Q: What sequence folds into this?
């Protein structure tokens, strides 16, 4: 079955714990933990991650966002040091992986990528390159660079960053990405993933390579992840 990843807002501890429980009990394969979702996700407090780790089953993967600044996805040397320090904290808190991106203009910042992937690898963390990918001018080149760097997953909607549309609209680009990856990296399809869009996305992409689905807003009720909505998404994924 195609894995389902649920993004949860970890800005508030109480809401984060409720969302983590709901995602777990709803059947998610993993959770992506972010603070400040109004800023498209920033690094959460490692103590929140540690508390979540204590209440969810050990087989539920916890991925922590590593993004120190709002705005664009460019990082400077001090940011990289902060990101690596955050990775270390997340490891000690029990995270299984980290989610980050690093670009310069509309291309991958390769020195930053090398530093961050090396740090994650040394800590035994899985890695996801987040939707900074959608801000890149050449997805095919980016796929090969990320594969060479040893990235485990790429999160993408197939839509240029900041533009309207869902992963359904991004299917042509996502198809090209999967064909380029050739199962070297798992593609995490995000952006408007809900009960109506899952069948369309899965039918178009499932046979092309390793993929999973990423949902946030479609599983919220009053700002907190809803177990029944998570189950509803899973019901749309073919077994």
A:
């Amino acid at each position: 079955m195609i894995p389902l990843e649920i993004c949860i807002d970890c800005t508030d501890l109480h809401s984060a714990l409720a969302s983590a429980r709901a995602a777990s009990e709803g059947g998610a394969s993993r959770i992506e933990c972010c603070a400040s979702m109004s800023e498209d996700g920033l690094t959460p407090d490692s103590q929140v991650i540690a508390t979540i780790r204590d209440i969810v089953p050990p087989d539920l993967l916890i991925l922590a966002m590593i993004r120190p600044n709002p705005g664009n996805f460019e990082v400077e040397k001090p940011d990289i040091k902060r990101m690596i320090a955050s990775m270390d904290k997340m490891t000690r808190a029990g995270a299984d992986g980290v989610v980050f991106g690093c670009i310069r203009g509309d291309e991958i910042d390769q020195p930053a990528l090398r530093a961050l992937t090396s740090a994650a690898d040394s800590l035994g963390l899985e890695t996801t390159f987040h939707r900074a990918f959608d801000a890149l001018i050449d997805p095919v080149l980016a796929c090969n660079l990320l594969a060479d760097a040893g990235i485990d997953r790429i999160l993408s909607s197939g839509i240029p960053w900041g533009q309207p549309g869902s992963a359904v609209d991004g299917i042509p680009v996502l198809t090209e990405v999967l064909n380029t990856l050739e199962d070297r990296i798992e593609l995490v399809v995000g952006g408007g993933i809900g009960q109506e869009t899952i069948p369309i996305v899965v039918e178009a992409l499932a046979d092309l390579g390793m993929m999973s689905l990423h949902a946030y807003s479609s599983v919220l009720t009053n700002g907190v992840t809803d177990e029944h909505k998570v189950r509803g998404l899973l019901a749309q994924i073919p077994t």
The longest helix spans residues 77-93.
